[in-house]
């Protein structure tokens, strides 16, 4: 079975692969138990049966999807000023997402997955 993250990185431009690859690697460092999968038709890292995070190239740059509105809301309260929708945060090559914001998105998503399992 092909790793969907590696498949994504093989099909985007070299610049996109470099940018996305850094964030994917960081997410794997932060949550080493996460596994690569396809989730909601996107390459993703999952914890158990839940999506942790996905990264996608877009027409204008990139989007981070922490699989839920709550991680985006919580993180952007702490780190305002980033382009976003209810369930994703957007960035570009010219204005990359600061690693501390990305880390907070991934770790908040991981915490919420753990909270769902306990309830």
Give keywords:
globular; 119 residues; 5 strands; Aspartate Aminotransferase, domain 1; five-stranded antiparallel β-sheet; single chain; alpha+beta; 4 helices
Please give a structural write-up.
The chain is of the alpha+beta class and 119 residues long. The protein has one domain (4-118): Alpha-Beta Complex (Aspartate Aminotransferase, domain 1), CATH 3.90.1150.200. It is 46% helix and 22% strand. It is built from 4 helices and 5 strands, in the order ααββββαβα. It has helices spanning 4-11, 14-30, 69-78, 99-118; strands spanning 35-39, 42-47, 50-57, 62-65, 89-91. Strands 1-2-3-4-5 form a 5-stranded antiparallel sheet. The mean pLDDT is 95.
Q: Can you summarize this structure?
A:
Helices cover 46% and strands 22% of the residues.
| CATH architecture annotation | Alpha-Beta Complex
CATH topology value: Aspartate Aminotransferase, domain 1
Q: What series of H and E elements makes up the topology?
A: HHEEEEHEH
Residue-averaged pLDDT: 95
Shape: globular
CA-CA gap between termini: 33 Å
Spatial arrangement of strands, main beta sheet = 1-2-3-4-5
Based on secondary structure, the structural category is alpha+beta
The number of distinct helices, counting runs of at least 4 residues, comes to 4
* Number of β-strand runs: 5
Domain count: the total is 1
Rg value: 13 Å
């Amino acid at each position: 079975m092909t790793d969907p993250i590696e498949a994504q990185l093989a099909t985007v431009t070299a610049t996109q692969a470099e940018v996305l690859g850094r964030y994917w690697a960081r997410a794997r460092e932060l949550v080493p138990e996460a596994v690569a999968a396809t989730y909601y038709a996107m390459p993703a890292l999952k914890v158990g049966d839940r999506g942790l995070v996905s990264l996608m190239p877009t027409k204008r740059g990139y989007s981070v999807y922490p699989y839920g509105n709550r991680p985006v809301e919580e993180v952007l309260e702490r780190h305002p000023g980033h382009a976003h929708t209810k369930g994703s945060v957007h960035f570009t090559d010219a204005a990359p997402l600061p690693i501390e914001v990305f880390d907070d998105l991934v770790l908040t998503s991981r915490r919420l997955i753990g909270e769902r399992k306990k309830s």
